[in-house]
Amino acid sequence: MLEIPESKTISRQASETLTGRTITEVVNATSPHKFAFYSGDPTAYGALLIGRTVVSTRGHGMFADICLDGDATITIGDGTNMRYYVPSEPRPAKHQLLLGLDDGSSLAFTVAMYGSICAYRGALDSKYHQRSLGSISPLDDAFDEQLFENIFRSTTKDLSMKALLATEQRIPGLGNGVLQDILFNAGVHPKRKKSTLSDFQKAELFHCLKVTLQNMTDRGGRDTEKDLFGNPGGYKSVLSKNTYSAPCPNCGDTIIKEAYLGGTIYYCPTCQPLLK
After folding, report:
1. Residue 37 and residue 227: Cα distance in Å, rounded?
2. Alpha carbon of residue 177 to chain centroid
3. Cβ burial, residue 16 (10 Å; 0-12/13-18/19+)
4. How far is the C-alpha of 263 from the C-alpha of 260, rounded, in Å?
5. Could you tell me which residues are beta bridge partners of residue 263?
6. Which candidate in 4, 102, 190, 206 could, as Cys together with 22 as Cys, close a disulfide (CB 3.0–4.6 Å)?
7. CA–CA separation, 15 vs 170, rounded Å?
């Protein structure tokens, strides 16, 4: 899924690859998807996008934006894959949107479980997109311990670490995927209540959040996700669907996989004890 490391990586790659390219063709979905969401009528995207040139890109939170001239933007959200094809590559037969570019290359958008593909002028009518644009990323120096403490204080409920950090987009782009390694590195169980953390443990969690996300981003995203060219990221996830059957790399104990709060969590019961 598109989280901070992937939105930053895909945006950087798109900037290097697409800036200056002009859209010459818009092909609507060849494989309609029940959970592919668009802004407005996707059959009108041709009139909006053809002739528009890529000016810049930006990755933020769980979004990647392709900014075009004429105040037009294409935004993909969590769950949407954006793949670039060079002129010599065959286009995919199935997609939820495809753009042809002036050099013969193409850009295909596909949705697996659910995802959004939005083309629009001005601002996107999405509170999550606007919140993401206006937030401070954990990758920025301005995301400091005081800001992190404010997140802890933002709710009166004694939430679990997963509920606090990976739901409601309190930190835009920090989702259940990247959370697993952050908590593992901090030695914190995903179900652990925020009230049980000491000031020292919160400081350690803050440090692990910053360092882990930076490492994931520096390595081009996680190996569980694909980049603009269809390649897996260079960051080797410690806890994920690819590794949970292996023993804990720290202590050798068995990694636990559980369903929790609408998703899957992974943890080592020895390195991440559940303190109540």
Report:
1. 21
2. 9
3. exposed
4. 5
5. 260
6. 102
7. 27
Query: 117: how many CB neighbours lie within 10 A of its CB?
Result: 25
Does 130 share its domain with 28? yes
Q: Are residues 263 and 164 in the same domain?
A: yes
Range of the domain at 117: 4-134
Query: How many CA atoms within 13 Å lie on the side-chain side of 159?
Result: 17
Tell me the CATH number at 224.
1.10.8.50
272 within a domain of the structure (yes/no): no
| CA angle 169–172–177, rounded 5-degree value | 80
- The CATH number that applies at residue 92 is 3.20.190.10
Write the pLDDT tens digit of every residue in 123-179: 999 999 999 999 999 999 999 999 999 999 999 899 999 999 999 999 999 999 999
pLDDT digits (tens, 9 = 90+) for 6-32: 999 999 999 999 999 999 999 999 999
Whether residues 44 and 82 fall in one domain? yes
Q: Is the dihedral of CA 35, 2, 62, 80 positive or negative?
A: negative
Tens-digit pLDDT profile for residues 76-127: 998 999 999 999 999 999 999 999 999 999 999 999 899 999 999 999 999 9
The per-type count for the chain, helices as H runs and strands as E runs, is 7, 11
- Rounded distance between C-alpha atoms, residue 1 and residue 125, angstroms: 22
How many structural domains is the chain composed of? 2
Q: Taking a C-beta distance cutoff of 8 angstroms, is the pair 52, 19 a contact?
A: no
Shared-domain flag, residues 20 and 122: yes
Whole-angstrom distance, CA of residue 36 vs CA of residue 156:
35
Q: What is the DSSP letter of 193?
A: B
